[in-house]
Amino acid sequence: MAERHGNLSINSENIFPIIKKWLYSDHDIFYRELISNGCDAITKLKKLDMMGEYTLPNDYKAKIQVVVDPANKTLKFIDNGLGMTADEVEEYINQIAFSGATDFISKYKDKTNDDQIIGHFGLGFYSAFMVADEVHIDTLSYKDGAQAVHWECDGGTEFSMSDGDRAEVGTEITLFLNDDVLEFCNEYKAREVIKKYCSFMPTEIYLIKADTDQTETINEEDKLPTDEIVETIVPEKPEDKIRLKIKKRPELLNETQPLWTKSASECSKEDYLDFYRKVFMDYKEPLFWIHLNMDYPFNLKGILYFPKINTEYESIEGTIKLYNNQVFIADNIKEVIPEFLLLLKGVIDCPDLPLNVSRSALQNDGFVKKISEYITKKVADKLSGMCKTEKEEYEKYWDDISPFIKFGCLKDDKFCEKMTDYILFKNLDGKYMTLPECLEVKPIDVEDGEDNADVEDSVEAAETADEAEESAKEKVIYYVTDEQQQSQYINMFRQAKMDAVILNHNIDQPFVSQLEAKNEGIKFMRIDADLTDSFMSKTSKKAQEEMKAQAEELQKIFKKALKKENITVKVEKLKNKKISSMITVSEEARRMQDMMRMYAMNGMGMGAFGNEGETLVLNANHPLVQYILTNQEGKNTKMFCEQLYDLAKLQHAPLEADAMTRFVQRSNDIMCALNE
Predict the structure, then answer these.
(1) Burial class (CB in 10 A: 0-12, 13-18, 19+), 638
(2) Which of 87, 367, 579, 665 is most buried, judging by how many CB atoms fall within 10 Å of its CB?
(3) How many angstroms separate the CA atoms of 595 and 150, rounded?
(4) What confidence tier does 85 reach under pLDDT thresholds 50, 70, 90?
């Protein structure tokens, strides 16, 4: 073929700036593009051999070689795939037909947003011009009688093409690097990038440093035909083995058969752990994993690991590596991986994933949505299956995986429906229960026998039919958010043989709100929201009327002593006579307060919500309460009111700084008074 020159069919003034914009944040991506093109060429050649259209040499070994040459500022990508004829170079390189570049330019030439730039593989070969001032191609087609072709271009509008001198079937691409990116012909940088993008490509990839004097020492019996011997090391002792110093062998950088390409039955626990450590450089053992393997209606393989989570869910950052035919695409593409699964670590390989589209198109792609739904379903099936068949193991993992599961329920309604009955709640005794099991727990009313003499015959022994019906409509699950702060309430629950669950994670509040919304008749209440009948002694109607009058009187006393006009006081006869006072806040009011505090963090004031729904409960059976009633004008009454109120507050929530100072001083005054 006579040497010829010509112009690229696409104006380089348009195409190369777009390429540079596309790759601006990922200068190193050209490694993936060129190596994956070589893998494709090798795969096609093997298929031709299988179909009988070509016969591979007996000693054929598929490989891609990456040769770094810092001295000459070049990078070479060499494959022994099917190669190209002059006509194919004209079609695939000069006309850029395979890449759809015409449509690409018309669609994106005026776009600058990274999310609108083409995704993967679109311009393959031309990504080389991101880092190279000049690119050469030397190729020889597998076809009989094919002539080697040499092609070169300096990134401008012109190219030249002539007969080449390549003797082996395949392609060699040489990049003459720009001075600004010479780091890419450094062997350490090259190794880093290749491992990032190409660790699991299906063809062996070797890294070679040109004109290196590096050597390695091997046993004589380990010598390969390709090894170049530098020195033979004769042992000092006859029984020792002969050693050979050879030129450093090309370094294999990838694993052609990653774990996810195998079936779950072929993989041992140690295989999964080794793969996890190698891929994620995490030497903490994962809790468990899910092996994904689907052939229809789309091809998807992968492994999802559930790492041990020690932080709040907002700061958890997992890694889901997305592959296409073992070629690395990206970490955590939210269009494919459900958001809540981004908390996990794992790999997903989907050859059917449509990649020659923009990010925005990928988001709206129905096929991609099906992939996301499948992954969600497999995770839900795994978790629910564990709860059914491996409950003990499931319980061991629960504290670590619960934030992720609850987050998933909040983000995905279908996942929530599948998982609702397999959410675990830990009770006060550390026992794990599902939601249905929690709803079956009924409190045992233990009456201490005190005050029975005051109970008149007129006191009804059971609820009316209407009350029973109303009670059946709403099933209450009590919960604890702070075991230490709410210890008094917990003790009261234990004494009443009542149970509660522990919900102490940030995500629990929105989660229980969702459960209430999706499950009519279920209500979650914090244990300090109200006092149930189980905590109180049974009283006659006469005694109830007396306590009502006492409550009105005590409310006046406490309003005056505390200088709080909006305080609500309630008097009850509690079974536990050691309890003098308590604070209750209605569930609705407390959730509103929590919401307002969140807004207050953003600069908004709490307004009138500070004490909304707060009730001071006084125990009529406690002597201090009786003292205040009978000594309204006593010199210590005001001090006792303040102390009872602060004690109740302390059991409910921490005191503010000024209130704590006054409480400590008042406590000292009370102790001094006792010594008088």
Answers:
(1) middle
(2) 579
(3) 69
(4) very high
